[in-house]
């Protein structure tokens, strides 16, 4: 795998298996996913609810061991707990509730800076808060943060180690249009600095304006991949069909 | 290059959660008053119980009085219950709020993250126990040589580590099975009844002495009381060896349980599920 590849997925699949008293139930969440994200590239992962976006991101992050195929993040297998990948992947999810309500944004970040063993934790925290446009509210208790601030704090945490790979799952949800634009700018800054980003969303407009390439995920398969113009028609048709089916 | 040595990971995790725990504790100004009040109530109750208990202190190796015996038992019990319950409650909280997933993305391995999570409360229970035992000895005018006091504190730390390993076994159960975790309750009840916390083991039926003596708290208390009450050092080392044997078994069990649990939740993707 060449050095400019941040993330490479080959024939990745995952089946959730649940054993209950009634027997085993399985749900095929991902089927034969192959995808590459280069460093300095922002790839959008577009798909309706339940299409497998979060499962795919969790496999990439090493939070879920795929049933088949391979995932290589920065050249390593993320599903190996002892891999050297820890701290190299920024993880941003929507509705993150992992921060301590009693602490300020800055104090919350200090916990993760210590867990990351970063050099100069205070400096890194300032830099991450600045990138996430949170410096003015950094000392406010987290319980008084708006949902947009919470989302940006999650982003700031992901930046603490200056990671070469960012995995973002509907990371801009809860942001108003103005904040969303500034959030996109901050993500773009990371991409321009050389980070590879896989950005999952079901918002067509957002991915159209933000991403270099888009992969359309439907029922656990990538049905189309390429520049937005190549994917747009198929994406609109898929979402229209879903909307029709749920009426 | 990116991997941490196990010791560095563990120390880093402990330090990080000690920092957060202290800040969180300070954010509740009334908490210190609440904790001191509840502690004072227990000491008064044990003092009252001490006036009711009429036993031969020499026959049952109670030390200077039943009151001192019971307070020492209570202090160790606090360390025991804290370590037994904190790990599993932290795991439960972390699973509910996605903290485990966020932690798993850091350089600190999940096992070290779990071990460090209750750092502040563990430290608090140790310091509180030391203050309690020291205070009772001062109040009752029972002198303890500094070297024996240091030995007793060392025994408490060693016992805390053994209890923590048992707590991690319980946490591994919660990690995988989410709800059911019968270990803590069973061990805590057995400890209260047969571990020599408030009732001297010599006062129990002889057939209970053997199983009771292998509960982790029993050798810890035997060693601590022997150190504090001026018994020969051989009376300190004998239970310490028992504690080390129990500890060795429990640590191996904890390492295996946590490894299996982490593998299982990563396979299921249920690190953030509860």
Provide keyphrases for this structure.
heterodimer, A: 247 residues, alpha/beta, Rossmann fold, three-stranded antiparallel beta sheet, 9 strands, B: 274 residues, mainly alpha, 11 helices, 0% strand, globular
CATH topology of chain A: Rossmann fold
How would you state the average pLDDT of chain B, rounded?
87
**How would you sum up the global shape of chain A?**
globular
Cα-to-Cα separation, first versus last residue of chain A: 45 Å
In the CATH scheme, the class of chain A would be: Alpha Beta
Count the domains of chain B. Answer: 1
Structural class of chain A: alpha/beta
The average pLDDT of chain A is: 92
Query: N-to-C SSE series of chain B?
Result: HHHHHHHHHHH
Biggest sheet features of chain A: 6 strands, mixed
Write the layout of secondary structure elements.
The complex is a heterodimer of chains A (247) and B (274).
Chain A: E1 5-20, E2 23-38, E3 42-46, H1 53-61, E4 68-73, E5 89-93, H2 105-116, H3 121-131, H4 147-158, E6 165-169, H5 177-192, E7 196-201, H6 204-210, E8 213-218, E9 221-226, H7 228-245
Parallel strand pairs in A: 3-7, 3-8, 5-6, 6-7
Antiparallel strand pairs in A: 1-2, 1-4, 8-9
Chain B: H1 6-26, H2 29-52, H3 66-97, H4 99-104, H5 110-116, H6 119-139, H7 146-177, H8 183-194, H9 206-213, H10 217-228, H11 233-268
Helix pairs in contact in B: 1-5, 1-6, 2-3, 3-6, 3-7, 3-8, 3-10, 6-7, 7-10, 7-11, 10-11
